[in-house]
Amino acid sequence: MFRIVKFIKGVLFVFPISLIVYPFSTLFIFLYHFNKLIVWIYTNKKGLILNDFFSIKRDYQKRYKLYTALVTHFNLSNEPITYLEFGVAHGASFQWWLKENAHNDSAYFGFDTFEGLPENWGGFYAKGDMKADVPQIEDKRGKFIKGLFQNTLNSFIEEKRTLLLSDQRRIIHMDADLYSATLFTLSQLYPFFKKGDIIMFDEFNVPMHEFKAFKEFTDSFYIKLKPIAAVNNFYQTAFVVE
Ligand SMILES: C[S@@+](CC[C@H](N)C(=O)[O-])C[C@H]1O[C@@H](n2cnc3c(N)ncnc32)[C@H](O)[C@@H]1O
User: The whole model's pTM is what?
Assistant: First the structure.
């Protein structure tokens, strides 16, 4: 069998007929990841504390319903939390979470270039879209870290190592949309994940971005993230570290 595969590979090297199908490869790759997503949804759609699959209409406001379900289920209003949001823009979700928790020891960090997406996102958003001013907030527990995650996250980790290693529950909110940003961030934060930490995705069901990053991360790091709540057909999905 191995010799046959080796032979076919050799033939394709010499007669590169793959070049004919190459223009269609993006479509094939998309379909591959889309099918993985469908399989994932049908394997994981039961037993969540909130799930609207299948709903015809997407309603972005439903993400607040998901946040509220998490706060109620995990009793998050009064316990100290470490909230890390990747992709802040104007700060809508960041401020929601900031208002929701009253504990003085809670710490909130929001990461963003504030200069927009660092690369095109699918066919819909271009590099530089979503540019926003750093949000002005009164609550001293919240801080923003401006710059590419790829440039800022590692020094942040060094500076906040003690907090990140503490028993304070981490809530990680992935809202950068991009495959690259999502995979990079999860990989760097992996050593700090503890049982009970919550990881939310804002665009989970986008096959070639957050979903692909999630799959590759969980498959490569052998980490088990249990889906706990989802809205908008898994567009927004939350997990708990097991
Ligand atoms: C959808 S917006 C965030 C929305 C926000 N969480 C809200 O509640 O409205 C995505 C943000 O991710 C940021 N982003 C994407 N990739 C990034 C990266 N590698 N480094 C820093 N920021 C990034 C973009 O600048 C953009 O502002």
Answer: 0.96
